[in-house]
Amino acid sequence: MIEYISLLRETLIFKNFFIVLSGLDNTLYLLIISLPIGFVLALIFALGRVSKIKLLSSVIASYIFVIRGTPLLVQIYLIYFGLVQLSLLEKVFFGMRLKNHFGVEF
Q: Cβ of 77: how many Cβ atoms within 10 Å?
């Protein structure tokens, strides 16, 4: 048992526990921001999906079909590398941050 505890102290999780714990405030901040935004967007899409307007309902159904059928990693790549290639977003702070972090040239 003592050997197991000494082995546990040498692991990366134990050594970096306080570094990982320092990122908890950012994680909770993102959670508090993203939950209401996601709820409102989901409510809008759900109400649009059950709408009696056929065009609105079919457009939202197509969007849901594409998003649910695309792997998350592909969506992340499209957002990170695809959106910054649009000329509309090259002056936006988000695009500049992505350009700086990933070396994407406009």
A: 11
